[in-house]
Amino acid sequence: MIGANANLGLKLAGLVGLLFVPFLASDDYVLHIAISMLLWGFIYTGWSVMGRFGLTSLGHGAFVGIGAYVVTMLWNQAGISPWIGIPVATLLAVMVGLAIGYPCFRYRITGHYFALVTLALAEVARLLIVALRDVTGGSLGVTPDAVVGPDVPVSLAAIQFSSKAVWFYVVLGVWLVGLIVWRAVDRSMMRYGLEAASEEEDAAAALGVRVTRIKLVVTAISAAMAAVGGALYGQYQLYINPETVSGIAISLQIVFAAIAGGMHNQIGPTVGAFITIMLAESLRQIFGNQVHGLDVMIYGAMLVLFIIYMPRGVVGALAGRFVRRERHVPARPAPA
């Protein structure tokens, strides 16, 4: 009971601390980093919802791209508000995820083969965006039509805010919803079915687990979260291109961050977001844009190292060390 109360107290203290971040940030750059960490932490959390059960998707860049581009195109081309565009983009991402997932799960294409199929999905999404350059802007990217400015600091219809403090609280709310979704999946009966299927699919099916169905459900949840994150990223940055919201590079970044932070822990993917963003910002400060693709190469190398030496991520390793230390603490002698 004491441990549970201490855990709840730490979470509440962390939440209160986050609420004061806009007041403590020294400038807009620091606030931008905080927003980026929470936003990408939400996307990485969505990936870990399915990745922690052995469903290693290398195609989540496609879902992020769908969320970003569908919302932007509907807004720019038809004037449809992101409040409508986000549900449309999310539904489309879920449909794509189910279209890819059903044949894979139905015919038991798992492991490395599933990863390769999803990897192809990410690259197809990137190439499709480039090919439709007349609409999407191609490799040059596109800017959502801006509404906010000196005279209009806030536009609820366009989900655009000139103040980074407002954006911080919006993204914080979305990030908290992502944690709630992760926890709901973790505490559901579906979790046990997915864990059983990841160990031995035939045995799980023999026990009555609807393997294909629960895999599709978790895939739909994960794809929806990635699409929502991509849509918010486009509205926040007011600029998107295939390299920043889709393709292999983004998919690899998502996988690396979730594994590095610890996809088996609720807060682990957000820790992974901290690692990746600080790494990217450090490389940008040191090398600028002189070495193209350096961050991707480092992500790949570090991903291999984490899989070998720290498979449960930073948070998982720290939690395991804390548990081992608690077990070795000698018990206090009983009073006479």
What does this protein look like?
- The protein has a domain at 26-245.
- Helices cover 75% and strands 1% of the residues.
- It contains 16 helices and two strands.
- A two-stranded antiparallel ribbon has the order 1-2.
- α3 (28-51) crosses α13 and α5 (82-106) packs antiparallel against α11.
- The protein is globular and about 65 Å long.
- The chain starts with a helix and ends in a 9-residue tail after the last helix.
- The model has no long low-confidence stretch (mean pLDDT 86).
Low-confidence stretches: none
How much is the radius of gyration in Å? 21 Å
In what range is the share of β-strand residues? under 5%
Spatial strand order of the main sheet: 1-2
SS-based class? mainly alpha
Order of helices and strands: HHHHHHHEEHHHHHHHHH
Helix content: over 70%
From the spread of the alpha carbons, the general shape counts as globular
Distance between the termini: 26 Å
Helix count, DSSP H or I runs of 4 or more residues: 16
Mean pLDDT: 86
Largest sheet composition: 2 strands, antiparallel
Compute the number of strand runs. 2
